[in-house]
Amino acid sequence: MNHTAPLSELPPAEPLAVLGIGCRLPGGADSPSAYWRLLVEGHDAVTEIPADRWDVDALFDPEPLVPGRTSSSWGGFLHDPHAFDAAFFGGTPGFDQRDRLLAQVAVEALEHAGLPNADAGLFTTGSGAGRIATLLGLSGPSVAVDAGDSSALAALHLASASLRARDCDVALVGAATLVLDPAESISLSTKGVLSTSGRCRAFEARSDGFVRSEGCGVVVLKRLTDALYDNDRVLAVIRSSAIGRSDLATVFGQALAAAEARGDEVGFVETHGSGVLAEDAAEFTALSKVYRCALGAVKSNLGHTGPVSGMAGLIKAVLAVRAGIIPPTPHFTAWHPSLSAEDTGLTVPTRPTVWPDTARLAAVSTMDEHGGNAHVLLEPAPPRTPTPRKPLPSRVVVPLSASTPLALAETATRLADWLEGDGADSCLQDVAYTLARRRPRAVQAVVTASDIDQLVAALRAGPKSPGVDTVITHGELLDLPPTAWDRTVFPPAPARVEAHPLLGTRVEVPATRRRVWQAEIGTAELPWLADHRIDDVPVLTSAAYFEMVLAAATEHFDCPPHAVEVRGVELHHRVELGRRTTISTQLTPTDDERAKIEVFGRAGSEWTRLATAAVRHYVEFRQEPPVEIDGVPTDPAELYETSRSHGIHHGPAFTAIVGLLGPGLARVRVPRAVRGASTRFVVHPVLLDACLHMLGAGLLPVSAGMLRVHGDLRRATYCRCELTELSGTVTVTDREGTVLLVIKDVQLSGRQKAPRGAQHDPLTRADVEHDLIRHLRAVLGLPESVLIDSGTPLLELGVDEAVAAELRLRVERALGLLIPDHPLWTNGSPGALSAYLANRFGIAGA
């Protein structure tokens, strides 16, 4: 049996009065008056993300849907969100920034209502309702609501039910949110709902999502009959509310039925209006079934404040019905083509519009991605008989108080500024009365004046200590600026610093200046590394060592990458990657500005030195001249195919060359799936691997003479390479040709891989010795007729360090092996050197 009565048979909802408002919203909207000014003037409060929130550049990527990145660098933010009046509230253990913000704004709302010490129920978003109620001394119900973007209006719906059930006589309804870390921005960006243009354009032709914003709003509610009996100032009347997981049009109908109202009595709907087309389309369809009126979307002014968005919309609607003006919606020029607005009667005002006399009701709507919807109907306050005026003394006593002398001085300045601006026509009696209705603070003072001009002068001169007990006890409440709070800063807990994925965690080494980092970089930890393979075995790309050296140097010298010079990079051995491969990077200072870096890999219990380099803290910086970029990109498939024929395979994570523009010039971009792997890379190994790959398919770098960073490698777009013999130069630029990275004197080694199916006899020590002597003869410029005995010392043959280096590169290219430097290259003999090579690489006959 269905026990639910039809909507037409349900009793109408008891009207509720909105008595007070407290708000802290982007764009300096820290009072109802400031918020209304922002709305009616059509301002957009969205700005770039402040530097004190997070490293925007490290996480920004203009391409949407990149894992680990955000495609938006915009938002709506509060000034000084961590400030809190500890002198007024006392200790707040267990409170977070949102709790503290909500507590302050709740006090402002009660004072705005003229009920500074009222006992009340508290209905908030989040989880801190009980803590905040205890802090404010409230004994009514305390309810925390989590309904996503509909949380604020869901909390209002529950508060309305509590008032009508007489669980409390006054209810505070509030919501607060702060944007302190990028985690949600990254999540929303991967869903494709963040606006890359940095603007919320609800229902608009250019809509591309929303920006995240923060804020806080609180309203004070009372049953209308009680408010009228107590002669309270009523800002607006809430006729009804409805929440549910039904479709929006049904929720609209429930709210209208509870208010005994029709859709044509509503002149304005403050919509959810997020700027996400799918949400806007669903809301527009529901609105067109029920209403024919003006629409607004405060997200176009503030951005998307999440659980606060319904409260921001409700306060906007309260202020609008109170003023009889519908505020404009910024950025709206034309309906989105997918929305059929013709014949719906729905409009979006782009300038302040006088409210229609025939439809004085307003509605506020919110949606949540998980299906929760909420709707509120409100109307203007009923006419009120002004408070009778009584004779005043010749000089009126105006009380002021704040938690600290500094806050008191700020309060006086705020009030003086307001009286010379928006409040210039105010009555002195009402100013004094309104201030007398505020909760006393620890530091109290008074000024006396016979008119507003004298009051302003006295406030500018500085309030005095109390000397007069008689204050004004009758008058009308005014929308004065809130009392200033003392600003004790409660900074958020420091964010955990992400360890560099290749360096890992730094280990302290007692009694030494050496710095050591250790990381697990196997394919289980960093799966994308497995896409770089040699002979079908995952091998750590040579580019990774360049990045480790750069990252270690910048951390050691505590400087930006462009202040580091890297020289003499030597790659001694390539490490095959298992699921877990341990890498240790050691930095040993040689003086205050220089250091030596060594990278080691461990296989079992043995450590092998993989790479070495020298680094210098280089304070002087000179920008390289720009590189001219020209050409039409062509498919790089042939380049990758050539590498595969030499046994070097680049999987999807390592295909960063996206187009060849000509000899030695390519367009490069780190693949999307890898780009979000970390924010700590100076130059992403995948990007650098692609640039080194451009020096020659089938060749692998074994050393580099010098490396310098010149700019932000996240903007890398092009790579130009110049190759002579086996040495090359790599230059990385942005899209305008500005140089971001230069690597000079890159030495390469070849991989001579036999064609598939070819049969070759296994390499022996005798083969190594024969090839070694052949290359030695070529390096020394000796003819074939000159015989070289395998036991002759290389020094006697004229082999110095330069000759040895060239000989080693020739042997590497011939054998396809990465051969480390060793004293035998200059101090040994061809026989001893070939025996060492055969033994090291397991060549037969060693």
Spatially, the strands of the biggest sheet line up as 19-20-24-25-26-23-30-33-32-31-29-28
**Beta-strand proportion:** 15-25%
Topology, number of strands? 33
Percent helix, as a range, is: 25-40%
Poorly predicted ranges (pLDDT <50, ≥5 residues)?
A: 1-5, 751-760
Please, how many helices? 23
Write the layout of secondary structure elements.
Elements: E1 16-24, H1 32-40, E2 47-48, H2 56-59, E3 74-75, E4 83-84, H3 86-89, H4 97-112, E5 121-125, H5 129-136, E6 142-145, H6 151-164, E7 170-177, H7 183-190, E8 215-223, H8 224-229, E9 236-244, H9 248-258, E10 266-270, H10 277-290, E11 294-296, H11 299-302, H12 309-323, E12 325-326, E13 353-354, E14 361-367, E15 373-380, E16 396-402, H13 405-419, H14 428-436, E17 443-449, H15 452-461, E18 488-489, E19 505-507, E20 515-520, E21 532-534, E22 537-538, H16 542-557, E23 564-571, E24 582-591, E25 594-603, E26 606-617, H17 637-645, E27 648-650, E28 657-662, E29 665-668, H18 672-675, H19 685-693, E30 699-709, E31 718-724, E32 727-733, E33 739-750, H20 765-780, H21 801-815, H22 824-827, H23 830-840
Parallel strand pairs: 5-6, 5-7, 10-11, 10-14
Antiparallel strand pairs: 1-8, 1-9, 2-3, 4-18, 7-8, 9-15, 12-13, 14-15, 16-17, 19-20, 20-24, 21-22, 21-27, 23-26, 23-30, 24-25, 25-26, 28-29, 29-31, 30-33, 31-32, 32-33
Could you give a short description of this structure?
The protein is of the alpha+beta class.
